[in-house]
Amino acid sequence: MNTFRVRAFGITKDILGGKETVVEASGKTVGDLRTSLLQKYPQLAGLRSLFIAVNNAYADDASVLNDEDEIALIPPVSGG
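-> structure tokens emitted (80 positions)
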């Protein structure tokens, strides 16, 4: 298992119960982390979109994570 520190913003902060959490994932990709997040916090599946940023850039599910990476959950944004 790999352990990652994840920062949350907007509605994801409410779902995770705070602005930061530690998540264990079976692999080292963003996709592995996403799977673990959805298992631990099933309410995340109800969001119409959920982006994961790594080191201040959007990351796709194939991106490989390192222990020191800054990981953030970016929820849907509304505005006008």
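The chain has a mean pLDDT of 93.
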